[in-house]
Amino acid sequence: MADDGLDALSSKELHDIAVKRARRHFDAKFFYRMMKLLPVAESAAGEYEKSDDDMLRISAHFDDISDSGKGEVGELMRPYYLEYLREHGVTADAS
Fold first, then answer.
1. Is the dihedral of CA 62, 67, 69, 74 positive or negative?
2. Per-residue pLDDT for 54 more than 80?
3. DSSP H helical segments within the chain, as ranges?
């Protein structure tokens, strides 16, 4: 497998590239899976209040999409972003 350069990127960069690609391709499945994973990542990062809000209100998820690449939550979501980008053949230089 050739080096796609993605491992060298920060979690925030991976998030931004993945969200940009999903928006450009109207990939609702990406956002749906992201909304399912966010409460788990937020809980694991100790952000219990955000996690509880997300479980109760879907609208809270939309507010979190832009923040889901930052801090510990971003690090916990990193494998999801890597999997998504590689599944779609995205490389660091093609972003």
1. negative
2. no
3. 11-24, 28-44, 48-56, 58-64, 71-87
- Give the phi and the psi of residue 8 in degrees, each rounded to 5: -80, -15
Record the pTM: 0.73
Q: Which of 7-11, 48-52, 57-61 tops mean pLDDT?
A: 7-11
Q: Tell me how crowded residue 16 is: count the other CB atoms within 10 A of its CB.
A: 16
φ, ψ of residue 68 in degrees (nearest 5): -75, 0
**How many beta carbons lie within 10 A of that of residue 56, not counting itself?**
10
On whether the CB atoms of residues 31 and 22 are closer than 8 A, the answer is: yes
CB atoms within 10 A of CB 64: 20
How far is CA 38 from its chain centroid? 8
Rounded distance between C-alpha atoms, residue 4 and residue 7, angstroms:
8
